[in-house]
Amino acid sequence: MDISDDQIIERTLAGETDAFSLLVRRWERPIYGLSLRMLGRDEDARDVCQETFLAAFRNLRKFRGDAKFSSWLYRIALNACHSRMRKRGNVVEQSIDLEDDEGRKFELADDDAELMPERMQRDQLAFQVRKALHALPPEMRQVIVMKEYEELTFAEIADILAIPVSTVKSRLYTGLQQMRARLEKFRTAL
Amino acid sequence: MNNTNRNQLGCDRKEDLVAYLYGEASASERASFERHLNECDDCGVELKAFGRVRDDLSTWQVGFAPRTEFVPPKAKMDLLRELIGMFPVWARGLAMAGAAAAIVLIALSVYGNRTDGLGSAGLSEQQVQAMVSKAVSDERAKIQQQYQTELASFKTQLAAEHQAQLQLANAEHQAKLEAVRVGLRAEIRKANQQNGSLRSFFAVEEDRSYPWGDSR
Asked: Chain B residue closest to A129 (CA)?
């Protein structure tokens, strides 16, 4: 049976600081994914990931057990993302990586050589998705990312962002509308 | 499920649509919205379009996450211990002795200030004036004493120099007197010799003046 987040936190606070690494291993992928989709750059996402876990470790005593650890962690990561966006004026659209230096950032659904045209089309679509997502205001983007990719519930998103559930739904709806408009334009151009 | 927010096409059930789209509507809400879909083409079209957007969004998959290198930051005391541990034993001993001396000096300084009364607040004007007068008077006495000491020393030096010069002048004078004395003696001897010669001469001449004898 897997040890729970709360148990790991308890052990860490009791002085077993290495136990925190278990939390890092458990949550690094979602936090990296969230940061990458919010910022669009691998380097920034890695930095945010590092900052998030460091901040969480330093402030672990302030974490109250009444909330989920993951929600707290997402909140720290989002704050770090927003801070980074403010510093660079939210110019993510110009710096979107299609893939990383080793070409391994995106997991393509199908590697079959016979399906190359379809794959290319899919790559193009993925790129357009990234562009459309990063053209959204951060408030809408973060809701779409958390709902669509992190698969959080409306209530969890509302808790992380400290906003009402209705606002989450409203932002999601508006975000999807804007995404639809951009992506339909792309489809028409094909 | 009732809300007043209208979508682009004028329907006011956009939040219900989102909840239905993501499967977060309750059974009754789902049933209610499905009934609405039978009547509202706009919501039906939007639902399908949002479904496509979701399919498009799923094309962006993050296949891996880089391993986060996390080293728990050490406490400040641990860092200090490590830093101290880098120095050799003699250096640590020296540093500890220095620190102890500094603490003693600070303690003595604080204690001294307290015993002088300067550390305590609330001195009256008279007390301050008295302290200042005493300090001025002490300083004046000190300067006077210093002046007297220097004057006495100067006097002693002057007297010694005067004495030395007197002795020198006296010695020179004595030497001159001795030279004169020597010269005079020489002159006297010379004169005596001449006198003796004259006496001898005049004695011979006296004998020649009375050849016939002297009846005296």
From this structure: B57
Q: What is the pLDDT along chain B (216 residues), one digit of tens a residue?
A: 444 445 555 688 999 999 999 999 999 999 999 999 999 999 999 999 999 999 999 988 887 777 877 777 766 666 677 677 777 677 777 777 778 888 888 877 776 666 555 544 567 778 878 888 888 888 888 888 888 888 888 888 888 888 888 888 888 888 889 889 989 988 898 888 888 888 777 776 666 665 554 444
Q: Nearest CA to CA, how far is B86 from chain A (Å)? A: 24
Q: What's this model's pTM, rounded to 2 decimal places?
A: 0.59
| Contact (CB, 8 A) for A155 and A143 | no
Q: Which of B24, B56, B65 is closest, CB to CB, to A29? A: B65
Asked if A173's CB is within 8 angstroms of B18's CB, the reply is: yes
Q: What is the 3-state secondary structure (H, E, C) of chain A?
A: CCCCHHHHHHHHHCCCHHHHHHHHHHHHHHHHHHHHHHHCCHHHHHHHHHHHHHHHHHCHHHCCCCCCHHHHHHHHHHHHHHHHHHHHCCCCHHHCCCCCCCCCCECCCCCCHHHHHHHHHHHHHHHHHHHHHHHCCHHHHHHHHHHHHCCCCHHHHHHHHCCCHHHHHHHHHHHHHHHHHHHHHHHHHC
Would you call B60 and A126 a contact, using CB atoms and an 8 Å cutoff?
Answer: yes
Closest CA to A148 of B154, B35, B214, B18: B18
Contact A79, A48 (CB under 8 A): no
Letter for the amino acid at B204?
A: V
Cα–Cα dist A32/A45, whole Å: 6
**Tens-place pLDDT, residues A7-33:** 999 999 998 888 999 999 999 999 999
